[in-house]
């Protein structure tokens, strides 16, 4: 299921209600405010209907009683005005461009790029719009894909281009654009059994070189670390529209667990649009804590930060099920982590000839 | 001459100068190569300062240290001043002939209570390099300067004179120098940098002598300059007679034997301070002495009895004889404002507080404590604070740990005042320097090196009290700074950001700009004070304005209090708001009602101050609702001010009665030198000071 997109007019109305909250407070003789859900792991809960994690009921009010908050409100107003201008003139800008444009906003200018990114997210949350509605583009790098699947993408000239991600692309695969909504991309046809999302470029290239996509009839997708929104969105669309299983192949460390959670359950930062980005049916393939022992993989000691992250995950509602609790505790006991590429200990083909077939067989995919 | 003088003068032929020096180098300040140089600078500079002070001249002093032979540690020292100079015929007496100066005899606060003066430098130079000391002197009434080389014939133990003549003395700018003295000597010594150095000595000297201009050229040719920050010379100090509480048996014996008085009652009344006619009779009665007895005829047991009566061990009518305190006008404190200036010109800082306690008396000796604290600026935040100790305006540079002044600093828990102090013990850490000055007619040192002050419960308590008060001042300052930053933010919020929010939201919604008054009250929800102290060039006054805003929903009433430097001569002018004086240096205004949204401004000007004297006015309030930007009046603070006021008044009334009683005769026969440790080996001849009264 896909969230309804907003029209330009709806977007403006939603933004005006944010402005109205501030304005009305001043008229009433109160400090102006902006009400937001609390954006931490203490305020995310499982939405049974949607099958993903969403923000809970906790709200925080940002009011203009401190200088910092007041400046945030002023910035929000400037951003809203800027978005309205873009909607009216049919333009879009990157978040980074908006950060630089804010130089001319006087008191409302951003102190850092991070501030402008966060504010864009805040506005998405309160208006229930998407940043695509705001005409704001991320800087982040989209994924690349290889496999026998065909899409069509509308190019700059407004023409639809048909692309097969095996036959029409080079070794680096098909680059996923930042906007993967229907107005930009349509999923046409495929001859694959599942999608495999891979954390590192090295492993992606290894599987491509070994022809894994053809041998196992799958689509390979390079996540490039913490996956961008468009990456998560296209995984979700392929999974739902083509009804394909998704397996996720990552390093075996606490950070990979988080990457998986953001793909499968929804990220804390974007929990307002989890139903739009998360793929609840995705499966964590490896590297698991079991694998480190079972395959006697070369491993590194957990750092202090790793241990902190694992402990934080133990109380994260997304990792509350028994399998995750077991994996996290096992890794803590082991005190070790391992990279995907440590499988090369047994030779370059070990991953495609032995490890992945064994793991996929457990899931009934090979 | 008596006491040490007689002892020193005796057997002079038998002891060689070199032996005398060797055996007493500790006592004389020449015990190490680096200290020798500091001692030489100290003797010359102290003399220059004393001479200028006596002649009421603002001192300009130039010190130059040059390395002559690094391998052999030979250094040349040149000290030039603009003092009155010395008449030609007196030069060799001052530098060569070892006479006693008058100051050993008088009881008063003076710098030169140490060593044997400049003669020691001449001796040391001669002994270590064989070179005489070159002296150039010009007095105002003569057209040219006299010069002469003064040395010592170590075989004959006699001063030598050579290469004397007269010359024209020009200043750097080509003008003829009006008057002054220049001393050049070569000695075996080491120039060091750091906490125990010529630089530090001059820096500290400059702090407590804000009326002096000091230039120091170090061996690397680097010029250090400490400007004059006030035109006011230190007060001329009066000599006083000894007080019975501070006298020792030896002194009493001498005074009695030298007395020409015919009756004991007259002797007591005329030769001591604090002894009235009634007290003189009562002391005699307590000691079982006839009032008519001639002082010279006193027997040893009677002397002892008299001393016991002095100390209250022998009673009159079952009570110790009541004595008045000695007058305290013999002390010359630097005074709060000048310490502040001295500190501020020397050390870069953000905050300076100083305080001069009222004079007090311990064991018959008047003394006065002054303290200063500066904070912030470029000082290191993670090191112990710099402790600047002074006794009678003389820097104390050695034996910091064993000194009473340091112990007083260490007795305070500085953590509660915003400085680090591991375990609440020791010298605190932080970007600060603490100054302590003890002015007294009789400074007691722990040893003959005269670098650390001896324990004295009363003095330590007095220093401690001053420290606590300064600590409170520092805490207030830090709190105020924090609150000021907060207030500044709030003002930015309501003056800039909120109007911008109102305007922008109105624009987007295409509605009228709303009124902000209600939101402002809710956002601030406080009473706020902003104060400003600025120097008014035109009127030559410091203009103070204190603005109080009521950003609460209710009417408020307060008493607003502000400090002003009354003790330092600040005079309140143009105080249109009226009010009344609350205590010394604290003014109060009553604000009956301040309606919500209202503000009120109190303004006044301070006359009688120089630019930079007063840059921050403390604002206090009495009232239930907090005022951001002002401090709740600490009634303890007022109480301490009032205590000091009371003591001051009592002292004034007492010193008046003392003046009335004071004997017309100038001479005091008291010999304070008897108190001091004496050299193990006697010097070959007498002792001289630069401006000894016997010249």
Mean pLDDT of chain A: 88
Number of domains of chain B: 4
> Distance between termini of chain B?
15 Å
- Rg from alpha-carbon coordinates of chain B: 30 Å
- What integer value in Å does the Rg of chain A equal? 22 Å
Query: What is the helix tally of chain A?
Result: 13
Distance between the termini of chain A: 28 Å
SS strand fraction of chain A: 15-25%
- The assigned CATH architecture of the largest domain in chain B is 2-Layer Sandwich
Strand line-up across the major sheet of chain A: 10-7-13-12-14-15
CATH class of the largest domain in chain A: Alpha Beta
Polypeptide structure, described:
The complex is a heterodimer of chains A (366) and B (695). Chain A is α/β, with parallel strands linked by helices and 366 residues long. Chain A has helices at 8-27, 67-89, 95-101, 113-127, 201-209, 212-215, 229-241, 254-264, 274-277, 289-294, 304-314, 322-334, 350-363; strands spanning 33-37, 44-47, 52-55, 59-63, 93-94, 136-137, 144-146, 149-154, 160-164, 174-175, 185-190, 194-198, 218-222, 246-249, 283-286, 300-301, 336-337. In chain A, the strands form 6 sheets. Chain A has a 6-stranded mixed β-sheet. A 3-stranded antiparallel β-sheet of chain A has the order 9-8-11, with helices on one face. Chain A has a two-stranded antiparallel sheet with strand order 1-4. In chain A, a hairpin with a 4-residue loop joins β2 (44-47) and β3. Chain B is an alpha+beta fold and 695 residues long. Chain B folds into 4 domains: 32-234, Heat Shock Protein 90; 244-325, Helicase, Ruva Protein, domain 3 (Orthogonal Bundle), CATH 1.10.8.50; 349-475, Ribosomal Protein S5, domain 2 (2-Layer Sandwich), CATH 3.30.230; 517-637, Mu homology domain, subdomain B (Immunoglobulin-like, Sandwich). Helix content of chain B is 31%, strand content 23%. In chain B, the strands form 4 sheets. Chain B has an 8-stranded mixed β-sheet with strand order 5-4-3-6-2-1-7-8. In chain B, strands 9, 10, 11, 12, 13 and 14 form a 6-stranded mixed β-sheet that branches. The longest helix of chain B has 53 residues, at 457-509. Chain B is globular. The A-B interface holds A 16, 19-20, 22-23, 25-32, 64-67, 70-71, 73-74, 77-78, 80-81, 84, 106-108 and B 489-490, 492-493, 496-498, 500-502, 504-509, 511, 514, 516-519, 521-523.
């Amino acid at each position: 299921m896909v969230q309804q997109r907003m029209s330009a007019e709806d977007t403006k109305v939603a933004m005006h209600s944010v402005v109205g909250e501030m304005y009305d407070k001043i008229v009433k003789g109160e400090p102006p405010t902006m009400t937001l859900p609390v954006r931490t792991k203490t305020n995310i809960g499982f939405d049974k209907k949607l099958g993903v994690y969403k923000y809970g009921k906790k709200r925080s009010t940002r009011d203009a009683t401190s200088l910092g908050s007041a400046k945030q409100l002023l910035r929000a107003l400037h951003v809203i005005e800027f978005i309205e201008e873009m909607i009216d003139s049919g333009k879009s800008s990157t978040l980074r461009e908006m950060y630089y444009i804010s130089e001319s906003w006087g008191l409302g200018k951003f102190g850092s790029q991070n501030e402008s990114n966060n504010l864009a997210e805040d506005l998405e949350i309160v208006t229930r719009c998407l940043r695509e509605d705001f005409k704001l583009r991320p800087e982040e790098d989209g994924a690349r894909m290889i496999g026998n699947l065909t899409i069509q993408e509308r190019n700059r000239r407004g023409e639809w281009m048909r692309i097969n991600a095996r036959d029409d692309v080079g070794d680096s695969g098909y680059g996923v654009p930042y906007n993967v909504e229907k107005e930009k991309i349509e999923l046409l046809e495929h001859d694959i059994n599942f999608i495999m999302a891979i954390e590192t470029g090295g492993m992606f290239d290894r599987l491509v070189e070994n022809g894994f996509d053809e041998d196992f009839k799958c689509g390979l997708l390079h996540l490039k670390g913490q996956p961008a929104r468009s990456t998560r969105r296209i995984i979700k669309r392929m999974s739902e529209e083509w009804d394909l299983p998704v397996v996720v192949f990552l390093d075996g460390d606490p950070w990979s667990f988080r990457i998986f959670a953001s793909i499968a359950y929804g990220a804390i930062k974007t929990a307002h649009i989890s139903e739009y980005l998360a793929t609840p049916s995705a499966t964590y393939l490896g590297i698991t804590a079991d694998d480190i022992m079972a395959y006697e993989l070369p491993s590194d000691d957990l750092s202090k930060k790793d241990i902190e992250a694992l402990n934080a995950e133990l109380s994260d509602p997304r990792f509350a099920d028994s399998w995750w609790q077991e994996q996290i505790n096992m890794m803590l006991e082991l005190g070790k982590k391992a990279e995907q590429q440590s499988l090369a200990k047994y030779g370059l083909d070990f991953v495609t000839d032995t490890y992945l077939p064994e793991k996929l067989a457990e899931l009934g995919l090979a | 001459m008596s006491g040490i003088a007689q002892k020193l003068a005796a057997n002079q032929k038998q002891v060689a100068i070199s032996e005398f020096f060797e055996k007493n180098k500790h006592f004389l300040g020449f015990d190490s190569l680096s200290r020798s140089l500091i001692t030489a600078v100290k003797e010359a500079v102290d003399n220059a300062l004393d001479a200028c002070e006596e002649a009421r001249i603002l001192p300009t002093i130039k010190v130059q240290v040059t390395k002559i032979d690094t391998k052999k540690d030979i250094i040349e020292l040149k000290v030039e001043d603009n003092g009155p100079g010395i008449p030609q015929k007196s030069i060799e007496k001052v530098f060569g002939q070892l006479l006693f100066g008058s100051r050993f005899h008088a009881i008063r606060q003076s710098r030169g209570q140490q060593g044997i003066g400049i003669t020691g430098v001449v001796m040391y130079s001669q002994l270590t390099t064989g070179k005489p000391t070159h002296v150039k002197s010009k007095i105002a009434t003569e057209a040219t300067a006299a010069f002469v080389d003064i040395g010592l014939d170590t075989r004959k133990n006699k001063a030598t004179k050579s290469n004397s003549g007269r010359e024209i003395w020009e200043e750097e700018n080509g003008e003829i120098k009006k008057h002054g003295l220049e001393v050049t000597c070569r000695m075996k010594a080491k120039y060091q940098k750091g906490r125990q150095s010529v630089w530090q000595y001059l820096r500290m000297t400059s702090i407590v002598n804000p009326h002096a201009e000091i230039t120091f050229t170090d061996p690397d040719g680097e010029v250090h300059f400490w400007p004059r920050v006030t035109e006011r010379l230190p007060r001329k100090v009066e000599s006083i007679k000894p007080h019975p509480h501070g006298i020792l048996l030896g002194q009493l014996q001498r005074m009695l034997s030298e007395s020409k008085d015919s009756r004991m009652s007259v002797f007591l009344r005329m030769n001591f301070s604090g002894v009235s006619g009634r007290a003189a009779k009562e002391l005699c009665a307590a000691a079982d002495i006839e009032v008519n007895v001639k002082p010279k005829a006193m027997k040893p047991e009677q002397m002892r009895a008299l001393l016991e009566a002095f100390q209250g061990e022998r009673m009159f009518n079952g009570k110790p004889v009541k004595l008045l305190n000695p007058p305290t006008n013999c002390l010359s404190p630097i005074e709060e404002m000048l310490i502040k200036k001295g500190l501020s010109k020397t050390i870069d800082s953000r905050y300076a507080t100083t305080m001069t306690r009222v004079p007090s008396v311990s064991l018959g000796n008047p003394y006065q404590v002054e303290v200063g604290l500066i904070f912030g600026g470029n000082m290191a935040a993670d090191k112990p604070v710099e402790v600047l100790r002074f006794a009678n305006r003389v820097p104390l540079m050695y034996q910091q740990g064993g000194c009473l002044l340091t112990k007083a600093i260490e007795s305070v828990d500085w953590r509660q005042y915003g400085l680090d102090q591991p375990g609440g013990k020791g010298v605190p850490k932080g970007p600060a320097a603490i100054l302590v000055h003890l002015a007294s007619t009789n400074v007691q040192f722990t040893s003959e090196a005269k670098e650390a002050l001896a324990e004295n419960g009363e003095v330590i308590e007095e220093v401690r009290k001053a420290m606590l008060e300064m600590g409170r001042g520092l805490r207030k300052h830090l709190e105020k700074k924090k609150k000021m930053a907060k207030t500044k933010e709030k003002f930015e919020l309501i003056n800039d950001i909120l109007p911008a929010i109102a305007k922008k939201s109105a624009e987007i919604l295409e509605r009228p700009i709303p009124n902000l008054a209600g939101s402002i009250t809710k956002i601030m929800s406080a009473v706020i004070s902003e104060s400003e102290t600025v120097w008014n060039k035109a009127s030559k006054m410091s203009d103070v304005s204190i603005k109080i805003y009521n950003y609460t929903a209710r009417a408020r009433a307060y008493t607003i209090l502000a400090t002003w430097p009354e003790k330092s001569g600040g005079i309140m002018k143009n105080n249109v708001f009226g009010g009344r004086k609350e205590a010394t240096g604290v003014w109060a205004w009553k604000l009956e009602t301040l309606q919500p949204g209202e503000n009120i401004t109190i303004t006044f000007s301070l006359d009688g101050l120089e630019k930079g004297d007063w840059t921050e006015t403390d604002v206090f309030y009495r009232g239930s609702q907090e005022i951001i930007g002002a401090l709740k009046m600490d009634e303890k603070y007022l109480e301490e001010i009032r205590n000091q006021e009371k003591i001051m008044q009592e002292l004034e009334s007492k010193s008046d009665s003392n003046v009335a009683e004071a004997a017309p005769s100038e001479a005091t026969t008291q010999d304070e030198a008897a108190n001091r440790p004496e050299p193990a080996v006697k010097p070959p001849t007498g002792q001289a000071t630069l401006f000894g009264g016997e010249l």
